[in-house]
Fold non-specific serine/threonine protein kinase.
Amino acid sequence: MNISRADFVLKKEMKFQDYYDVVCTVGRGAFGSVEKCIHKTTKREAAVKVLKKSNFKLKELELIVNEISIIKELDHPNILKIYEAYEDEESLYIVTELIHGGELFDEISKRLNF
């Protein structure tokens, strides 16, 4: 039996807050927020997308978890890296690399000539 990183998608037995300190809010959306955080041990900066589970149907949550497992397996310089994910009673926490530079849509808009 082969075990991959994606098999450990959601760390339900561990709490996000036990491993990361939140520094500030980077953005907010309809389904949650994105926070800048720092790993307590390694001091690595990261971003965490906090999704409130109450905003989703059960099937939608299952699709999100499936998408996380797929993206965790990808390794490409143009794809955001997912480091790990946590779940508690209220939220999903998706920890990713921290990207600087603003919104992707704004950057695309600047580069396109209409």
Notes: The radius of gyration is 15 Å.
